[in-house]
Write a structure and sequence with these properties.
It is built from seven helices and six strands; from the N terminus they run αββαβαβββαααα. It has 181 residues and is α+β, with helices and mostly antiparallel strands. Strand 4 and strand 5 form a beta hairpin. Helix 5 runs antiparallel to helix 6. The longest helix is centred in the last third of the chain and has 16 residues.
């Protein structure tokens, strides 16, 4: 539900008592995280945008979409921000991770500009992660049982052993239960 005014910069009602200004220009989370990354150039700064495919990227980033490209991340490629007219660039040490659920139908509508600027890494269910975590934390004595339950549920979802297993894998692979659930 973010817009450019929320994510980068925008005018907001002034809540300070005694001020006669009705609106003030406030910096958004993207601007703030870029400033943190600029102040700490030796550190990797990570911005995680959950469900990135649900956002209207041109509305959220506007002309700044080009600045997230690897070869544009330097002061020489600065752009003037819409409201403040400040010079702005995205530092090299800022890592932007956008998560999304590929089973979500809004993936089809995902902006092509965004598709070109991100690497897609699929994370399929790994029930061993759950088992290992339960063992490490000594939560349960039978951690492998939980892993096996998820494994069997996923086999049912995918129709393992059925004649249409390959077709079901294509159709239902995104509906499996995994370590993140």
């Amino acid at each position: 539900s973010y817009s450019y005014e929320d994510f980068v910069e925008g005018f907001r009602p002034n809540t300070k008592k005694g001020s006669n200004e009705q609106y003030v220009l406030e910096k958004g989370i993207f601007w703030k995280v870029c400033e943190i990354a600029k102040r700490h150039p030796k550190k990797k700064i990570i911005l995680i945008i959950d469900e990135i495919n649900r956002g209207n990227i041109p509305k959220i980033l506007g002309e700044l979409i080009t600045l997230i490209e690897k070869d544009k991340r330097n002061p020489q490629n600065s752009l003037k921000l819409t409201y403040s007219k400040d010079s702005f660039f995205v530092p090299e040490n800022l890592i932007i991770i956008g998560t999304m659920n590929t089973a979500d139908k809004s993936l089809m509508q995902m902006d092509d500009a965004l598709k070109r600027r991100f690497v897609f890494e699929e994370l399929m269910p790994d029930t061993k992660l759950l088992e290992n975590q339960l063992r490490e934390e000594n939560k349960v004595a039978n951690a492998s049982d939980y892993s096996n339950i998820l494994k069997r549920i996923n086999e049912k979802i995918l129709g393992k052993g059925n004649e249409d297993e390959k077709e079901r894998m294509k159709q239902f692979r995104d509906r499996q239960i995994g370590h993140s659930y």
